[in-house]
Amino acid sequence: MPTTRTPVGIVGAGPAGLMLGHLLHLSGIDSVIVENRSEEHVVERVRAGVLEQGTVDLMHDVGLDERLRREGMRHEGIHLRFAGTRHRIDMSGFTGGRAITIYGQNEVVKDLIAARRTTGRPLYFESSEVSVLDLETSSPRMRFVHDGDEHEIACSFIAGCDGFHGVCRQSIPTSHLTAYEREYPFAWLGILADAAPASDELVYSMSERGFALFSMRTPTVTRLYLQCAPDEEIDAWSDDRIWSELLARLSTLDGWQPNVGPIMQKAVTPMRSFVAEPMRYGRLFLAGDAAHIVPPTGAKGLNLAMADVKRLSNAIAAFFATGSEVELDRYSACGLKRTWRAQRFSWWMTSMLHQQEGNNPFDYRRQLAELEYLVSSTAAMTSLSENYVGTPFD
Ligand code: APR
Ligand code: PHB
């Protein structure tokens, strides 16, 4: 098997791997991206859709925000709904004008794949038997099979951008990695509905029947979620049952409710918090879901991944420009600081808004009191807002 060389081997063509490849390209650094699924699967996969200001700024800085500016929906606030009432939090007002933008993760991925194709740099979908080796040497290698051909690529660095179930984190000796984890005793059933969004901004709802979230993708597509059991059988949820539960959890006393329409897609997402420490082993650097998972309540997953790869590309570019390893050495500690801040926030949003087995009427009253305090305190709303819109990327 002939061995070829590339400066950076990237495992995974999700948002983390693709953005890293593009950032490196802009610094004149070549890379090879290896993905085990098909391009269609990667693009069609329905995921979250909230971009922090930092992610929007990054898409702008790398010249990929043409469609995002046109189709993305900028939101300056969110609503919290409890006890039959919606309360708006003016996030921009509390953060000096920062905002979030609704733009599906799969749209981000489409834009990044198109940019990669334009560069002509390698991107191998449907690769099998992907493995990484010699990670503790200065020439780690990436192996895979593509179109029946075996490839071995010697790299200066390998970026593990292959998600939670990927091969990179699993290639680190367990003695060099500590995992911190919490699984939640519930999941989200998410749907895409062919219905115009009934609100201009997201609605997070805490109700005795469980959590629900109103979101959107386009001016004609509503995205909705409802809390369900972690092992929920999707077939147990007819469209009628989904709508009646969503309406019960989201409607308000003043008559607001989501618009109902044909359900185009439905799926159950488990909820987990996970952090791997450190985010580096030798010349292997973990980024995105490969290193950390947050429950979706704070909408942080994609944004953490983007912050990781921006830092990683800067560190790699500095190494090739000057030989300095200072930024590479700081990569993990800086990333973990941001990750734990997002973990704390996502856990807090999740526990404030969901119902857990074993909760009793005391807990429900306590949750109501927390939400009442939140929407009446400038300090508390500022805290939520600055975490939700996200701190600037370093
Ligand atoms: N070899 C090659 N590719 C792999 C392998 C493997 N052994 N295992 C997984 N992959 C691919 C997956 O198919 C996927 O396309 O790695 C990619 C990882 O992408 P994501 O799971 O989207 O993760 P990431 O790029 O870190 O994106 C951030 O945060 O909260 C989430 O929804 C958010 O998916 C987003 C993520
Ligand atoms: C989404 O639109 O998919 C979405 C929005 C907010 C969240 C999670 C997901 O907290």
Structural commentary:
With 394 residues, this protein is of the alpha+beta class. The protein is 36% helix and 29% strand. It contains eleven helices and 19 strands. The strands form three sheets. Strands 1, 2, 8, 9, 10, 11, 17 and 18 form an eight-stranded mixed β-sheet that branches. Strands 6-5-13-14-15-12-16-19 form an eight-stranded mixed β-sheet. It starts with a strand and ends in a 5-residue tail after the last helix. The site of adenosine-5-diphosphoribose (APR) has 27 residues, from helix 1 and helix 8. Adenosine-5-diphosphoribose (APR) binds next to helix 1 and helix 8.
Structural class: alpha+beta
Indicate the low-confidence ranges by residue numbers. none
Q: What is the count of DSSP helices, taking H or I runs of 4+ residues?
A: 11
Bin the helical content.
Answer: 25-40%
Strand content is 25-35%
What global shape is seen? globular
Helices and strands, with pairings:
Blueprint: E1 3-11, H1 15-26, E2 31-34, H2 39-44, E3 50-51, H3 53-61, H4 66-71, E4 73-75, E5 78-82, E6 85-89, H5 91-94, E7 100-102, H6 105-119, E8 123-124, E9 128-133, E10 141-146, E11 149-160, E12 178-193, E13 203-206, E14 212-218, E15 221-228, H7 239-250, E16 263-277, E17 280-281, E18 284-286, E19 292-293, H8 301-322, H9 326-353, H10 361-376, H11 378-389
Parallel strand pairs: 1-2, 1-11, 2-8, 5-13, 11-18
Antiparallel strand pairs: 3-7, 4-7, 5-6, 9-10, 10-11, 12-15, 12-16, 13-14, 14-15, 16-19, 17-18
Bound molecules: adenosine-5-diphosphoribose and P-hydroxybenzoic acid.
The site of P-hydroxybenzoic acid has 10 residues, from strand 14.
